[in-house]
Amino acid sequence: MKQSILFIIPLLLALAPGLRAEDASPAAAPISVEETQKVAEAGDSAAQYLLGELHNLGAGVRQSYAEALLWYRKAAEQGHRESQHMVGLLHYRGRGVQQNGAEAMKWFRRAAEQGFAESEHMLGIIYYRGLGVKQDLPEAVNWFEKAAERGYAGSEYMLGFLHQRGQGVTQSYADALAWYRKAAAQGFAGAESALGDMYRGGLGVTQDAAEALKWYRKAAEQDYAQAEYMLGEMYREGSGVTPDAAAAEKWYRRALAHGADYARDALAKLGMGRK
């Protein structure tokens, strides 16, 4: 029995960062995994990319990063920019292949040369971290700015982060706030939490606990662990709210559930470190 991919298309559009609607349109796409494979084997780059996405996500096929990489690479070698990005990303993360910063950079550059914002962002991350290259903060800023010009929220956040700390740029809380606001306007949780920090600490703005709470709540609505932890802190301290140990515990526990192990210490200080 053929496995239809029509039900998979909305999932890919939601979860696969490079997929464009026109690449996944039911009118243009094969209607089964088997037919997708036939078209991909015939050399169609869009079908090769789609098959890579199916294997990457385990949607309608057995999940396999190695198989995803095989199909992404076939499309990438034909100049398909989303596939070039995904080949880079799998090498960056070491999925289906040994982690290799230099190889990741090569493929990110190819996609970036075609104006793919996510690859520009990842080049910024590589230069920021010094993965496979010498750390170069000004070069990281250069790539983040390119992606931010295309409205990429992750790069807008990183520019805020770098301006706040004066890394690769002149330190400026005003510029940090401006970039965080751009990213937050797109619902980027890290930027919302960062705005909470700015208002909590009075960094470039008048200190305002209520405004800090507002931004932390926005990020916490997206299960952003650091914002959940900070809400716990504010309820514990009574900052902008009436002190409330039960509410503090609730937010610390949510932060812990979402990976913020440091919330365990806060719970212990409340005397509520039970499992």
Could you explain how this protein is built, in words?
The chain has helices at 8-15, 33-41, 45-57, 65-76, 81-93, 101-112, 117-129, 137-149, 153-165, 173-184, 189-201, 209-220, 225-237, 245-257, 263-270. Residues 4-30 have low confidence and may be disordered. The chain is 64% helix and 0% strand. By secondary structure, the chain is mainly α. It is built from 15 helices and no strands. It has three domains: 1-108, Tetratricopeptide repeat domain (Serine Threonine Protein Phosphatase 5, Tetratricopeptide repeat, Alpha Horseshoe), CATH 1.25.40; 115-209, Alpha Horseshoe (Serine Threonine Protein Phosphatase 5, Tetratricopeptide repeat), CATH 1.25.40; 223-275. Helix 9 packs antiparallel against helix 10. The longest helix has 13 residues, at 45-57.
Shape: globular
Number of strands: 0
Computed over alpha carbons, the radius of gyration is 22 Å
The first-level CATH class of the largest domain is given as Mainly Alpha
